[in-house]
Recover the amino acids of this structure.
């Protein structure tokens, strides 16, 4: 630490006490540096050593109860490449349906259960009310929409996989059971209500944006690159494709990158003060290789969504800024457009004449000793990379998880918010709330590397270099 | 009549048990009508409060911070529930135990690193030598296996406890359910 003072926010919540923030002040009392510390470490890259590879999808799903389906998909795709099989077309489509259902429920959780208190009640709301139950008191229809939209996604997962959380349905080579006609019809009949919820929530969000001009201009509003997987036609996808990276002006920096070669272009750096590693784009080095992933990044890299309503909204989204859309506040907006896309795309896939095919699994023994699987998780690009021995037992694993890609940007965003809202040596509640809210824009799935939910806990101390507490704020 | 005070906490787990809690969907609002959720990842609370009637604990005890927390939570809770397989048996987090912490740290922070390898040791809490179930450290009143326990199981659990009955969960859930 440099000369001067340090503010410690410990613990940060909606991240449930597993992270904290320190703000370093210079001698003039201006914020000079910010650190977002992730304080939980679970060891998945090691604990599966020696396990049979076919256990990996179910085991890896336990990384995260919010986006287990993304881990199932990335893991199963890594296993597909160990088997060296091409999975049946219907299995491919069914996995996509599963993934879209999950993105919908996960985005609903982020937007309604976690962020709607900030958006509805405001950044300075009474913390005792600043939760989904407070939203239910103020605007019951909004809270109920959130519960129903999340339920919509979870029910699709349950219909296909047998249970809502940690279903074992996605397996190496495909999926374990075909889709029944009854389930197909039941899911199709649930689409209109979900679409109506998505439409009215997007309208509500857009009409609220005017109240957040100051946040939009300071919440991670800076140039970075953006990365995401796109389809062959450069359209939005969550399941499969090539990686594309664009710069802050929206120009393509790298295109058509094979996710299997991720380690050629993505570096991972350790900071001694966090369990969450930071990734960077290798050709630009650290820290200039900073990029963002997730909803905002996907809409910045993709040329189109490929569904009618989402494409109309995407065109409007791009009007926010002539370059790439830079403010991380717009993650919320991007998330809502992606929900629209998911629901529309679910309709397309479920109406596909092949979708009820019984041929949904390719069976093989391992044919390769190394495999990479990648997909777009709700929060961004996810890589699973495995090596096995001749017996099919796991010998080495590397996981690059969405939230890690955003680590540099989250740190920089906290710095930007702190610089704007912290003046001198006094702490204000507004600053506290907004530091919390900027992290929430990224919807950091710290249960993937740590834990994700929770409100910011409410103690910030401003501590001088020699340990004297200069100021303290406790919220609640 | 004062409302019951319930809490949920999450130690070394995946959040799946909390997601299953949310899977109660509309029933969440009914529970919120019958009890105050005084501490949880879902609400704003600065510190684990005193006099909590029921606390649901997800996850194993894996770090120094988890250990400190669970002791404080036990002191302030009347009925402590181990929710889910990780809390009950250490389950997946416990899979790191045979390797020892050094090998687990080394894989993540020395081997799988391009730049500046090293074990984080500033600010972050150290791992305990092994990841253990909750009842090895504090008394647990109710065990609810499942990965995760279903929303119906959690609803039954909570409503029974709120009505002063000790639920019989054996027909409702099982390990790995």
């Amino acid at each position: 630490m440099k000369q001067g003072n340090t503010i410690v926010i410990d613990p940060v919540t909606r991240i449930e006490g597993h992270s904290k923030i320190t703000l370093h002040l210079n001698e003039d009392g201006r914020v000079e540096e910010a650190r977002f510390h992730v304080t939980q470490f679970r060891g998945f890259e090691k604990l599966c050593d020696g396990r049979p590879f076919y256990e990996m999808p179910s085991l890896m799903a336990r990384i995260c109860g919010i986006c287990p389906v993304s881990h199932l998909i990335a893991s199963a795709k890594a296993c597909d490449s160990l088997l060296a099989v091409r999975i049946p077309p219907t299995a491919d489509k069914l996995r996509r349906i599963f993934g879209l259902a999950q993105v919908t429920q996960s985005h609903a959780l982020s937007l309604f259960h976690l962020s709607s208190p900030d958006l509805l009640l405001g950044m300075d709301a009474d913390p005792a009310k600043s939760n989904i139950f407070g939203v239910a008191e103020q605007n019951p229809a909004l809270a109920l929409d959130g519960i129903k939209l999340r339920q919509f996604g979870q029910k699709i997962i349950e219909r296909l996989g047998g249970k809502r959380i940690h279903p074992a349905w996605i397996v190496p080579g495909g999926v374990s059971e075909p889709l029944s006609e009854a389930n197909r019809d039941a899911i199709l009949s649930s689409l209109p209500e979900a679409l109506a919820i998505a439409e009215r929530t997007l309208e509500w969000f857009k009409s609220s944006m005017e109240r957040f001009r100051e946040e939009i201009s300071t919440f991670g509003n800076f140039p970075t690159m953006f990365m995401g997987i796109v389809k062959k036609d450069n359209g939005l996808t969550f399941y499969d494709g090539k990686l594309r990276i664009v710069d802050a002006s929206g120009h393509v920096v790298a295109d058509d990158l094979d996710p299997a070669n991720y380690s050629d272009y993505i570096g991972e750096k350790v900071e001694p003060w966090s369990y969450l590693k930071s990734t960077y784009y290798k050709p630009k080095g650290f820290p200039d290789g900073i990029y963002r992933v997730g909803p905002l990044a996907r809409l910045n890299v993709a040329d189109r969504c490929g569904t009618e309503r989402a494409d109309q909204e995407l065109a409007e989204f791009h009007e926010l800024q002539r370059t790439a859309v830079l403010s991380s506040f717009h993650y919320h907006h991007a998330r809502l457009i992606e929900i629209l896309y998911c629901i529309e795309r679910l309709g397309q896939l479920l109406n596909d004449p092949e979708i009820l095919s019984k041929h949904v699994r390719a069976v093989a023994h391992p044919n390769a000793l190394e495999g990479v699987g990648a997909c777009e998780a709700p929060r961004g690009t996810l890589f699973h990379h495995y090596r096995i021995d001749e017996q099919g037992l796991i010998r080495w694993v590397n996981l690059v998880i969405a939230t890690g890609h955003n680590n540099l940007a989250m740190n920089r965003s906290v710095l930007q918010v702190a610089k704007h809202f912290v003046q001198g040596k006094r702490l204000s509640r507004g600053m506290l709330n907004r530091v919390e809210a900027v992290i929430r824009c990224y919807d950091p799935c710290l249960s993937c590397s740590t834990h994700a939910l929770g409100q910011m806990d409410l103690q910030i101390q401003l501590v001088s270099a020699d340990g004297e507490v200069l100021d303290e704020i406790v919220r609640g | 009549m004062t409302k019951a005070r319930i809490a949920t906490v999450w130690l070394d787990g995946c959040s799946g048990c909390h997601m299953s809690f949310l899977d109660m969907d509309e029933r969440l609002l009914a529970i919120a009508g019958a009890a105050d959720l005084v501490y949880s990842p879902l609400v704003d609370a600065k510190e684990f409060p005193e006099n909590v009637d029921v606390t649901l604990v997800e996850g194993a005890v894996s770090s120094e911070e988890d250990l400190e927390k669970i002791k404080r939570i036990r002191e302030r809770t009347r009925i402590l529930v181990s929710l889910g397989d990780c809390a009950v048996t250490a389950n997946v987090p416990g899979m790191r135990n045979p390797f020892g912490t050094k090998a687990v740290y080394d894989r993540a922070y020395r081997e799988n690193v391009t730049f500046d390898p090293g074990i984080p040791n500033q600010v972050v809490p150290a791992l305990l030598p092994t990841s253990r179930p909750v009842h090895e450290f504090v008394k647990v009143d109710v065990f609810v296996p499942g990965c995760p326990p279903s929303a119906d199981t959690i609803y039954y659990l909570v409503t029974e406890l709120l009505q002063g009955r000790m639920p019989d969960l054996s027909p409702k859930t099982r390990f790995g359910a």
In short: Residues 5-42+421-474 of chain A form one domain.
